[in-house]
Amino acid sequence: MQLAELLHLEKSSVSRMVRKLIENGKLSETPDAEDARFKLLSLTTKGKRTLARINEYGQRQVADALSRLTEAKQRTVRDGLTIYVRALTTTAPD
After folding, report:
1. Are 26 and 40 in contact (CB under 8 A)?
2. Which of 10, 21, 26, 70 sits a CA distance of 20 to 30 A from 49?
3. pLDDT tens digits, residue range 32-78?
4. Is the dihedral of CA 10, 13, 11, 46 positive or negative?
5. Which DSSP category does 27 fall into?
6. Are 40 and 55 in contact (CB under 8 A)?
7. 69: Cβ–Cβ under 8 A, 6 or more apart, which residues?
8. DSSP 8-state secondary structure symbol assigned to residue 93
């Protein structure tokens, strides 16, 4: 339930996704020692490798896209992302 709330997704959808990741050996599930209603989730070695490949793919996509832009346009993208990050981390309007 906590994961569903964190991701802003339906509990049933998250449960299905988690179950698939466990079945595929990418996620492990252990009962919480203090509260049996909770389960602790962690990436397995296989899951960590998959995550690394996903991150590498995303980084390549960004690098390839930026390489097609002029320096001025790259600065525009950087400035826009900086503004966006500040907006995400700031509670007061800018």
Report:
1. no
2. 10
3. 888 888 899 999 999 999 999 999 999 999 999 999 999 999 999 99
4. negative
5. E
6. no
7. 77
8. -
